[in-house]
Input
Amino acid sequence: TTIQKLGLALHPGNEEYAKSLQPLKNKRFAFIFDECHRSQFGENHKAIKEFFPNAQLFGFTGTPIFETNATYKKIDGTIGSYLTTKDVFQKLLHAYTITHAIDDKNVLPFHIDYYKPEENVKIGSAEHQNAVATTILKKHDAATNHRRFNALFATSSINDAIEYYQLFQKLQEEQKQKAPDYIPLNITCVFTPPAEGNKDILQLQEELDQEREDNKTEPEKKKQALAEIIRNYNKQYGTTILLSSHLLGEVEQICDRIVILHKGKIVASDAMSKLLHANSIIRLRVDDMGKSVKIIDKLKEQNFPIESVENTIEEIIVRVSDNCAKEINTQLVTNGIGVSHISFEPQSLEQYFMEITEGETDVT
Output
C-alpha cells in the first residue's frame, strides 16, 4: 500500500504531509513496485514522479498492459485506452514468461477445454449464463479430481460476477430439491465495492479506469450484493466477520450485531435490529386526533414500548423503543377510530450514531 499512502500524501490538499517530505525531495531513491500493471497508471504514480525527480522506478508485473490489451469499454459504450506498461516504465529490463516457468517446471502445464455453442446464443444473455453455470456444475467434480482442488471463475464485470453467484445459488438449490443427497459446491464471490471517494478505501487501492467505469453502473446493487454474500458466507460456515468502518450505511446492511466505540469506550453493544428500533417513530393519520392521543397515552401507561406522543396538524408521531404499530392500530380501530395511514420508521445507524455520540463524528 506504499504507493497509495505516499501518493495520497502528495496530493493537493495534503500540504502538511508534503511539507514533512521536503527534506527527501531531491535525494536519489529507488522505488520498487509490485503488481505495477494496476497500481501505476493513475494520479499516485504521477504525484510520486513529480515530487521525487531524482528517483528511479522499477516495476514487477505478471500481467503487463500491451497495446493489444490496453482498451476497455466505458459506461457510455465508447472505448477508452490505458497507458501501456512500456509507456510508464519505458525500458524492459527482464522478462520471465509463463512458457519459461513451464519449461523450468516451476508451474504445472495447462490443459484447456474449449466449448462451442450448438446454437447462436448471445454472449451475456440469461440463456448463455445458465448454460455456462450448468456446465461448470456438471464438470467441476471431474476437473478437480472429485473436489480435491479449488477453482476460480473470472467474469468481465462485477455485475456479471454477482449474477453468476446468484445463479449458482439458484441452480444448486434446485438440484438439492431434485436429489436430497446432493452436496452443493461451496461458492462465494469476491470483488472490490465502489470506493466513492472514501479515503479509507482509496489508500488501499487505486482503481483502473475499467474498474472505475464498472463501478459507475448500479453501485447500490453491488453494495447490496456484497452484504448478501457476506451473510451467506457466515451462515454457511458458522463464522463471524468483524467489520470496522465509518461507512455506516454499509455496516447497517451487512452486520447483525454492532459495537460502537466513543472516546475509547464501548457506548453501545447489541443486535442491530434492537438498537435501531430504539427511539423509532410510528406515524399515524386518523379521523379523531384527540381521542387517538388519549388511547395511545393509556397504552403507554400499560407498559407498551411507547416513549412519547405528539401531534401535528396532519399526523400523530409516536416515539417507541420497539415496533408496536400493529398493536396501536388494533386499539384505535377497536375504539371506532378510522386509521388512514400508519407507518413504522426505524432510525438509521447513522442517526443512532449521531445521537449516542452527540454528533462528534470525528471520534471513534
In short: The two ends are 23 Å apart (CA to CA). The longest strand covers residues 265-271.
